[in-house]
Amino acid sequence: MTTGDGLRAPTSADSAELEGRVAIVTGGASGMGLATVHALARRGATVAVFDLAPPDRAELASKLTVAVDRVRSFTVDVTDGEQVQRAFTLLLAEETRLDILVNAAGIAPPTAFEDITEDEWNRVLAVSVHGTFLCCQRALPAMRSGGWGRIVNFSSTAGKTISTAGGAHYTTAKHGVLGLTRHLAKVYGPDGITVNAVCPGLIDTPMARGLLPDASLELATRSFPVPRVGLPWEVAELVAFLASDRAAYITGAAVDINGGDLIV
Ligand code: NAD
User: Picking from 14-18, 75-79, 90-94, 159-163, which range would have the lowest pLDDT averaged per residue?
Assistant: First the structure.
């Protein structure tokens, strides 16, 4: 949808851009997921957090500057099909629609290749790839029936090259997320649904701080064209744009946000 001459966007980046939209953010309890919850709710969306340990109301109120009644918490392990199904059923019973899905849940153990156990390999792929598959599969029918949808999957610079600190399983999982994103973009574009991935570089979150000591993080980012670590809200703003009407012609993209660390 464009306005007559195609020069003006149908919506602007105002505070009510996502009013009436219902969103799910997996991994929304921390880091970039939490920043995304904030960015979507600030634009008027109702946001459901799917996380292993989702924040309660008091925690949300202390962390967000938006009305917390726009945010719902669900305890979900995204690798478990039954838990995912239960949370979708509860949410859709109350909200009756679903417009936006952001798959941000992820884990990144730094284990050396020869030390990765089969269980750990499976777990890392399960959270990023299987969890994204399960949530996309349950979200798409609701988006199709609404004739509009936005899916934003968290890949990484690791999905295009290799991870700075995560192991081979993490790099493999983030490549997998890009494959799934591209496939779904192709299939569901005609239904008004866009499917994109974001590929963050080093972003200042509990995950990155857990992998790299503060000094290594500063050192690793000093040589970037933008010589500093990225901030969660900077990624969340990109996600919120991809989730808006203004990004209707972007699908199947893997959008870099990395301070220029990887220029391709
Ligand atoms: P984070 O550790 O701060 O947050 C990740 C969240 O995912 C946590 O709240 C955690 O509880 C949740 N989670 C983990 N396993 C889950 C499961 N099975 N079910 C439901 N929730 C689960 O991490 P972050 O740095 O904000 O990362 C967000 C996403 O961005 C991840 O997919 C990560 O791989 C990716 N990423 C991070 C960086 C970085 O530098 N921080 C860079 C590139 C990509």
Answer: 14-18
* Enclosing domain of residue 191: 22-255
191 lies in some domain: yes
Decide whether any atom of ligand 1 lies within 6 Å of the 202 Cβ.
yes
State the CATH number of the domain containing residue 41.
Answer: 3.40.50.720
Q: What is the pLDDT of residues 131-168, one digit of tens each?
A: 999 999 999 999 999 999 999 999 999 999 999 899 99
Q: Is residue 15 part of a domain?
A: no
CA distance 158 to 206: 18
Q: What is the rounded distance in angstroms from the CA atom of residue 79 to the CA atom of residue 96?
A: 24
Q: For 83-93, how does the pLDDT look when each residue is reduced to its tens digit (9 = 90+)?
A: 999 999 999 99
Q: How far is CA 174 from CA 97, 104, 128, 129, in A?
A: 29, 11, 7, 8
Q: Which residues form the catalytic set?
A: 170
- Mutation choice for ligand 1 from 205, 214, 221, CB with most ligand atoms inside 8 A: 205
